Amino acid sequence: xxxxxxxxxxxxxxxxxxxxxxxxxxxxxxxxxxxxxxxxxxxxxxxxxxxxxxxxxxxxxxxxxxxxxxxxxxxxxxxxxxxxxxxxxxxxxxxxxxxxxxxxxxxxxxxxxxxxxxxxxxxxxxxxxxxxxxxxxxxxxxxxxxxxxxxxxxxxxxxxxxxxxxxxxxxxxxxxxxxxxxxxxxxxxxxxxxxxxxxxxxxxxxxxxxxxxxxxxxxxxxxxxxxxxxxxxxxxxxxxxxxxxxxxxxxxxxxxxxxxxxxxxxxxxxxxxxxxxxxxxxxxxxxxxxxxxxxxxxxxxxxxxxxxxxxxxxxxxxxxxxxxxxxxxxxxxxxxxxxxxxxxxxxxxxxxxxxxxxxxxxxxxxxxxxxxxxxxxx
Length: 378
Fold this sequence. Notes:
Layout: H1 13-25, H2 32-44, E1 49-53, H3 56-66, E2 73-78, H4 84-91, E3 95-99, H5 110-123, E4 127-131, H6 143-152, E5 156-160, E6 168-169, E7 172-173, E8 180-184, E9 197-201, H7 204-214, E10 218-221, E11 224-227, H8 238-268, E12 275-276, E13 289-293, H9 299-308, E14 314-315, H10 324-330, H11 338-346, E15 347-350, H12 358-372
Parallel strand pairs: 2-3, 2-4, 4-5, 5-8
Antiparallel strand pairs: 1-9, 6-7, 8-9, 10-11, 12-13, 13-15, 14-15
């Protein structure tokens, strides 16, 4: 039987040695390794500041707190995305308002963003405060249009680039189109620290506020340590940062491999029946390769059949407006955002990682094609 997992971190002995170095140093939380990792992320994204934290979700939480988003505010997020941006809006007391996405790119639809802002104003759901465009699966959202709408309604822009480390939009690195941007280093990301996240910004004041929120609210007041706010402990460990620095050194090759594999998937699946392929853009970084099954195909059955043959496949992501918490709290129905609902029910993520060979990919594509052509009994 084949053994082709959906994802696999690109670890080798270099990460082991990095952890050993930290163990021998005796400094294990937010020290020189974290500073070096932050500096490398900042350089990559041409940002003045990078603030490392414990996860991408923590990064979003800090961004909301830093911008003063809270009760009475509305935050606009794409429905088809991991729900961190929506969840953290709820945590700070704001209302998440879901926006539909575009087919092919799976990114926020700027036209529907305007529609949802107007609905928010009409129904008095809260003061429109921020939009969080998610660069889904490593492809940048249409930031020109998003910013145009944001400027029209005086919204803050927080980029959720959790999946999009190293991605660019019209040649500019993602993360600094708005005031703040965030990244994730979860194991399914191209670069991982196990868990971990980061915030980037070009605003000195916001950077300092983010650092204060991250570190228990500590600040230097009148020349000595004090607590300026009631903050969190979102500090990254030295182990994570050391691993992350090694991963960043590998990133050019990781990205090259992902782009090669994605291009091959597009070629091999071009004539596959019953699916829609993702948009092929040169700036895509391909954290995930997701196809969309036609509605007459049972995704669960396809996943089970692929697993039985040793191939890891899974739902691509979720639509927040289809989740129980948001249906029950805000009255969302699946039909409200039809494109997001379709991707939620029919999106299929295929294996994509640095350890995949060309023959592995060809087997995945061939198996999917056979299954969708009707050979579900193999």
